[in-house]
Recover the amino acids of this structure.
């Protein structure tokens, strides 16, 4: 059974280098774990400020009862936004932040 | 908060037609209207700048804003009638199946009015217990409750009697026996503590209670409704006088209507008129009525045996209607302005741009040439059927499930957010109702979040990239629609040398497929410019424009699955689901069919040897590259999102040439569900060689031909680098050849052994 291993910093580095496209199996398992749907958990969305140019990270509360709540984080690169969400989820699973940015 | 939203009453317009616009404006005293022609989508810095072209019209200008509410929730209604008004003692009986018994108070049926506190009604209380409610005005109300909750998805025979002379009331809540081992038991309660004479001229309703005059839009009769019921009602009947238990059993038995003939007030048979909106009373008073907001019909009733799966063969087993508190077929808004399509307006894609404060909302529509006339040899056919079934695709924002299969964080803008600010906009056929059942009906007569030239590049907004390319080539094209194709058949296509589809023409009626096929057999040419096309069967509502049904039967990549025994469309009786399960696989029409989807990164095509075949070499004139479409505004490639491949077994013509094939797709590209009979894990593009998009060409008899791109993302590469790229060149070569009067030579039968 796959389980999270916070010593696998190689997977974080692989994701950072290449957030979209082909991933090695262990990274794909990790992404599936991080993105797994949970009806009780909030999830992230990106709200475009300028289409294709900049996005605000926002939080959707579970249950679809309210519109997304924007954070103050703005990204001008979709890959950087993905990396930020990855880091947030890593910290949640590991109980500590990734040792690199 | 300032918001504006609206809809129009026709998507397909021709010179002389009037398009009426309905608008709701919140938080602003006025709003601005501008009719525009759309020549491209808003697609960011790498695409043609978004420049809607203002159309001179006296409709343009400033309007007073008003909010219009959304009367959501389905019901059925029978106008008030003296024979209901005079009932001093009566028996109400029906079979019911609640699907969310714990939701809140929910109406079953009766003429109860929440506002005047008058009438009689059977309902569920907050605990899901059956309740009889009677009233002759405020302060006179009495109720009798079963005190035992009903269970979700369980059929019950519910009955109630009252007699205002004797003051007796009684109710029965009896589970209908079925397979399985349920613990619940029949409940009977009665009282002699008196009940009022509940005489009232109220309408009789099913699955909702009226609550007086509506202040805004009303779904029926100027009334507003609440206490909507989620679940099914089957064979509701009303008898004059209070029957005992044996009498109730007799009434609902095989010859019940004859046995109780003298006292019968009404006996509705929902198995009649399943395709339409009437409900029919088979009793002596003919208390016919109508359904409101399109609850789901052609669903099984309490007596479905499982032996028959087609409602047209045994309608008596499909005598139920499934009501939902989130059904909406028509917002019934008042018209705010009307645009008359003049004969000077050229065919194209148009929209009313509505602006209130900083908030901009678009209401697109299509203008075609007069019927039977073509102004060009080229027609773009807007995928109006597919746009419709996607309207208000809410579920994709509800959890990270979307992120799992898309491989990206979901993007959501402020118009998408309207779905959560105004949930009464209703759902799409990609969603489930609040009780978990799939949404089978789609409608346009309401505000929507995903039919506009901005936001996610999908369907309409991506198809504008094809319009952008046609504009770049000089703008010599007509716009026609799938609505017109369904109505008018091949005659719509016949005047054109070439018909160009959108990026994702996924949904077709039988009439639409027949029209394409007949056109191609007579020398027509089709450019299928997308992926996952011609996939699902749909049915059109018999009378309502723009109302489409989808039954997601058996296989396919799908957001929900129709319940067993409910695979046949209510509108037509036709078996629903994938066209490949209905002998019309897309490979037969366009050579390719859906093989995979993924949404994190798009890829490219590699030219094949067949590209040098003299039958196809002309399309590569000026295209020297080995890789086609290794660029684009959609995740960097022309091959992706949803992709199609050839499959001889499913009907790809033997002479079809695959001139380019995609490769190097990512992990999120999984092979479609209908190809995986035994789950084995080796299904993603990393390991599965079956996953590729095929640019495919074949000739049809009489000088016609088909050219398919097999990829939704393809349209996003056309405009790359100012249209100076191999995707645009290849596609333009095909368009020029297909638009030419010169027949494409029929290659004859392939030689044996080839
Ligand atoms: Fe689709």
């Amino acid at each position: 059974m796959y389980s999270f291993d916070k010593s696998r910093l190689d997977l974080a580095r692989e994701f950072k280098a290449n957030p979209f496209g082909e991933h090695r199996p262990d990274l794909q398992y990790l992404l599936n774990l991080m993105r797994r749907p949970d009806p009780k958990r909030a999830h992230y969305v990106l709200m475009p400020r300028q289409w294709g140019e900049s996005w605000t990270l926002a939080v959707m509360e579970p249950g679809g009862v309210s519109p997304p709540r924007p954070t103050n984080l703005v990204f001008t690169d979709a890959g950087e936004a993905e990396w930020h969400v990855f880091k947030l989820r890593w910290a949640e699973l590991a109980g500590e932040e990734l040792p690199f940015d | 908060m300032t918001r504006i939203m609206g809809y129009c009453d026709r998507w397909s317009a021709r010179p002389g037609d009037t398009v009426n616009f309905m608008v709701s404006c919140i938080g602003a005293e006025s709003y601005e209207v501008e009719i525009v022609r759309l020549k491209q989508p808003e697609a960011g810095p790498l695409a043609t700048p978004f420049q809607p072209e203002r159309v001179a019209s006296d409709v343009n200008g400033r309007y007073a804003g008003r909010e219009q509410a959304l009367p959501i929730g389905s019901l059925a209604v029978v106008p008030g009638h003296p024979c209901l008004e005079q009932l001093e003692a009566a028996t109400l009986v029906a079979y019911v199946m609640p699907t969310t018994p714990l939701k809140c108070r929910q109406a079953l049926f009766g003429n109860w009015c929440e506002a005047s506190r008058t009438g009689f009604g059977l309902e569920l209380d907050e605990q899901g217990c059956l309740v009889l409610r009677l009233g002759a005005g405020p302060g006179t109300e009495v109720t009798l409750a079963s005190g035992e909750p009903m269970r979700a998805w369980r059929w019950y025979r519910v009955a109630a009697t009252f007699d205002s002379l004797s003051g007796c009331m009684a109710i029965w809540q009896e589970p209908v026996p079925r397979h399985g081992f349920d613990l619940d038991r029949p409940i009977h309660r009665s009282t002699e503590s008196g009940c009022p004479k509940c005489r009232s001229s109220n309408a009789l309703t099913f699955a909702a209670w009226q609550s007086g005059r509506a202040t805004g839009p009303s779904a029926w009769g100027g009334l507003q409704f609440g206490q909507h019921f989620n679940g099914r009602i089957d064979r509701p009947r009303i008898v004059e006088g209070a029957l005992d238990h044996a009498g109730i059993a007799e009434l609902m038995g095989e010859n019940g209507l004859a046995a109780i003939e003298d006292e019968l007030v009404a006996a509705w048979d929902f198995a009649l008129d399943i395709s339409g909106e009437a409900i029919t009373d088979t009793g002596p008073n003919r208390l016919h009525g109508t359904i409101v907001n399109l609850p789901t019909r052609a669903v099984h009733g309490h007596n479905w045996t499982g032996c028959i799966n087609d409602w047209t063969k045994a309608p008596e087993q499909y005598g139920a209607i499934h009501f939902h508190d989130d059904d909406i077929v028509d917002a019934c808004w008042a018209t705010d302005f009307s645009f008359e399509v003049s004969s000077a307006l050229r065919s194209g894609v148009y929209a009313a741009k509505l602006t209130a404060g900083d908030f901009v909302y678009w209401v697109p529509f299509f203008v075609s040439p007069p019927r039977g006339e073509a102004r060009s040899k080229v027609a773009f056919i807007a995928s109006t059927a597919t746009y419709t079934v996607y309207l208000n695709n809410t579920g994709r924002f509800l959890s990270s499930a979307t992120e799992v299969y898309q491989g990206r964080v979901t993007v959501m803008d402020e118009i998408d957010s309207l779905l959560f600010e105004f949930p009464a906009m209703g759902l799409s056929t990609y969603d489930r109702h609040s009780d978990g059942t799939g949404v089978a009906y789609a409608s346009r007569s309401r505000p929507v979040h995903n039919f506009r030239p901005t936001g996610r590049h999908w369907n309409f907004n991506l198809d504008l990239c094809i319009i952008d390319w046609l504009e770049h080539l000089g703008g010599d094209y007509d716009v026609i629609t799938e609505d017109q194709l369904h109505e008018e058949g091949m005659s719509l296509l016949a005047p054109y040398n070439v018909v160009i589809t959108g990026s994702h023409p996924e949904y077709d009626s039988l009439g639409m497929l027949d029209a394409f096929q007949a056109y191609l057999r007579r020398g027509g040419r089709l450019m299928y410019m997308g992926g996952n096309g011609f996939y699902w069967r749909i049915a059109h509502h018999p009378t309502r424009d723009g109302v489409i049904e989808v039954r997601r039967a058996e296989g396919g990549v799908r957001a929900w699955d129709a319940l067993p025994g409910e695979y046949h469309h209510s509108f037509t009786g036709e078996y629903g689901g994938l066209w490949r399960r209905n002998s019309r696989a897309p490979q037969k029409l366009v050579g390719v069919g859906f093989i995979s989807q993924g949404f994190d990164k798009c890829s490219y095509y590699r030219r094949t040897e067949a590209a040098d075949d003299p039958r196809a070499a002309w399309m590569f004139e000026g295209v020297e590259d080995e890789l086609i479409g290794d660029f684009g505004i959609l995740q960097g490639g022309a091959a992706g999102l949803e992709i199609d491949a050839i499959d001889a077994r499913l009907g790809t013509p033997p002479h079809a040439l695959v001139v380019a094939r995609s490769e190097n797709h990512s992990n999120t590209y999984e092979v479609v569900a209908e190809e995986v009979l035994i789950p084995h894990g080796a299904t993603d593009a990393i390991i599965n060689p079956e996953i590729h998009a095929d640019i495919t060409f074949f000739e049809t008899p009489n000088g016609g031909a088909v050219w398919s791109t097999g990829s939704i993302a393809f349209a996003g590469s056309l405009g790359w680098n100012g249209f100076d790229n191999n995707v645009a060149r290849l596609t333009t070569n095909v368009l020029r050849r297909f638009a030419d009067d010169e027949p494409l030579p029929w290659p004859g039968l392939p030689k044996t052994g080839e």
Summary: Chain B touches chain A at residues 42-47, 394, 397-401, 403-404, 407-414, 417, 420-421, 423, 454-455, 600-601, 633, 635, 664, 666-667, 686 (CB under 8 Å). The pocket of fe (ii) ion is lined by residues B 504, 506, 532 (CB under 6 Å). DSSP finds twelve helices and 45 strands in chain B.
